[in-house]
Amino acid sequence: MTLQTVNMPEELQPYWKQLDCGFPRVAEVFPDCMREAQALLSDEGLTAYIEHARFLGKMGRGAEPILIFLEEWPEVAKVAGEEVLSDIMGFVRKMSKSPNSKAIAPFLQSLPATARRLHTHEQLRNYIAIAQDLMESTTGSVHGIHQTFPSPGLPEMFKQISHLLGQMSLAGLKNWVEYGVRYYEDHPERQTEYFSLQSADSKAVLMRERNGTLLVNNERKLGMYLRGLWQDEDMLIPYSSAYDELRKPIPYYDKLGIRLPDVYEDEHGISGLNRYRAALAHIVAHRRWTKAIIADNLSPFQRMAAEFLEDSRVEFLAMKEYPGLRRIFLALHPVPEEDACDAEKESGLRHRLAMLSRAILDSHHPYINPYVIEYAQRFHGLMESGKSSTQEMADLGVAFITKTRLQSDNLPKTHFKNTLVDYRDDNRQMWKFIEEGDEEEAFDEPRKIEPGEELKGLPPRHYHEWDYKNQSYRPDWVSVYEGLHPQGNAADIDRLLEKHAGLAKRLKKMLELLKPQDKVRIRYQEEGSELDLDVAIRSLIDYKSGAQPDPRINMSHRNDGRSIAVMVLLDLSESLNEKAAGSEQTILQLSQEAVSLLGWAVEKLGDPFAIAGFHSNTRHDVRYLHIKGYSEHWDDQVKGRLAAMEAKYSTRMGAAMRHAAHYLEKQQADKKLMLILTDGQPSDIDTKDGELLIADARQAVQELDRQGIYSYCINLDPKADEYVADIFGRQYTIIDKVEQLPQKLPELFISLTK
Known about the structure:
By secondary structure, the protein is of the alpha/beta class.
C-alpha cells in the first residue's frame, strides 16, 4: 500500500484505489475534492467522476488536468447537470489523440465560468461543437495527411472564454470564431493574436457581434424586476436560437427555472431589456392566473386556439395591473395582413388565431373578418365579468375553431408569416394529461445528503486571478482550502509573553490611551433608553402652567470609542524557516513572538480581530489556516494553534487576501484593517513569470479598497523596496532588522488604529 493510501481517510480509500494515481499533489487535495463531490453528485455521477479522473491522470499530461477536473467538475455538474460529462470527456479524448493535448488544461479550467454563463447541457454541447470546429479547422498537417501542428488559437480562446461569453451570445461566438478561422487559418501568429483578443480585427468583430442585450449581463436587473413588481423569483436560464433553425426555440418555464433567449436585439422601438421584461411579465402572468386543464380530449388545433386565447387573457390581466405593458405588447405583437394567407394552398388556422389575438389586444385593429370581430368582443365580455378562467378560454377557442373551420386547414403547409408572438412562452404548463405520453417531461429530483451522511471538510473556494498580460481575470483559477490550524502547546506562547514582559508593560500604557471611554449621554431625545429626569420635570412644570411642554424627555447613550475590525494574515511560506540576520531565531519564531504580543494587545483593546496563515503549493492547493476567529477570545485554544505554526511551500498572496477579505468584510465596523505579515514577494512554483503574482496581489489590494478594507503590509525582506510599493502603494513598512519585529508590530498596529 502506498504512503498516500495509508494517509487517506478510510472511507475514501476505495475511491483512491480506483483512481490509481501516483501524483503526490493529487493525494493532498483528493479528500477535500471527494467530500465536495459526495455532496453534489449522484452515485452514478461519483462513479463517472472517478473513472474520467483516472483517464486524465494516465493521459501523459502530468498532474494538471486531473487536478483541475477533480476540483472543478462537481461545481460544473451542479450548474449544468451530470449528463454533460460525456460530451466534455468526448472532446477531451479527441484533443488527447491530436496535437492539441496542451489545450486540455485550459479547456477544463474554463468550464466553471462557461457553465455559469451557458447553464444547460444543450448550450454547453453547442459550445463544445464550436470549439471542436475551431480545433479541426486550425490544426496543421503535413501534406494534408497527418495532423502535426496544434491549433494556435484553441487554448487562447479557452483562456478568454469567460470574457467572450460575457460580451456576446453563443451565436455571436460562433460567428467570431468562424471569422478568425476564415482569415487566419494559415497564419499561426496572427491566429494566436486574434483568439487571445490582442488584434484590432478580433476586437472589432467582437464589437460587431455584441449587438443586442445579453441575458447574462442583465440577470440581476431582471431578477429585481421579478421580485419588485411581481413578487416572484426564479432562476433565469439562457438558451441559444442559433443551432435550431428549423424549430426555433421560444421561452418557457419548468421546475428548473425560466428559459429565455441568450440575447435580444432592439425591435420595433422596444429595447432588448424591455423585451425580456415583456417575456417575464407574460410568463409570471401564466404562473399567477393559469390553472392547468385536461388536454386529452382536445385536438392539436383546439389546443392551439386555447393557448392563443389564454395568452391574451393573462396579458389582459397583467396590463390591468401594470398599464405600461400595453405599449410594449402592442409594439411586439405582429399585425398579420388579413389577405396574406392563400386558403387554397396553405392552412390558415394559425393566421386567423394571430389576427384574433391582435384584435383582442388592439381595439384599433384593421380586420373586417366577422368571426375575428365577434370573438374579440366575446373575449372582452368574459373579462368584464371578472378574471374569467383557463377553462373558459379553452371553450371559447374550441367555439372559434368550430365556427371558422375550413377544408384547407388540414393542408400540410401552414401560413406562419407574422403569426409568431416571440415574447410568449410555449404553454407547456397549461396542460395536464390523464395518460402519460410524449408530451410530458420527467425531471429528476436533485440529490440530497442522505440521513447519517456528514460533510467532514469545507469544499474548496475558487478565486479569480489577474493576468496582467491580457489585462483580464482568469476565472476560477485558484483553489483555496481552509481549515483550523492544528493545536500545539499554549504554554509556549505564555512563555513568549513572559519573555517580553518589559515590552508588554510599555504597550499597556499606550493601550490605555486607545481604550474606548465610558458611555456618553445623549440628552433631549423624543425616544431613548431611559427618562431624562431634569428635562421631564421641566416639561411637567410647563404643562401644569399651560405652556407647551418639551417632548424630548428621554436620553440615550453611545460608546465614545473605537469601531475597528482587524485581520492579521501571516505568510507561512518555507522561507520563514531561515534564521534572521544577526539572530539565533528563525523568522517564523520571531513572527510567532510578534503576533503573540499583537494578539494580547488587541484583546486588551477589545477590538474584534482574527488571525490566519497561508501558504501555497501551486494554484490548485492554497492553504488558508484559521488561527483565531472573530468570535473567539485570546484563550489557550488560540495560543495552542499559534504555538504550532509551521512554514512550508510558497506565497500566493492575492488568493489569500481575497479569502481573508471574505470574512473581514462581514464585520460590523467603521474601519476594517488587514495586516499582511510577509518576508518576501508573492511567488509559487507553477509560475515562471515573477511579475504575474505581484500584479495579482496589486489587483487584490485594489479589490479590497473597493470593499472598504484598508490593507497594510509589514515586510521583513530587506530588498522589498523593489516590489512592495508596486503592490501596496504607500501602505507598507519594511522592517530591516527582523529581531525588532516583536516590538515594532504592536507599535505599528497602535499607530494605524489611533
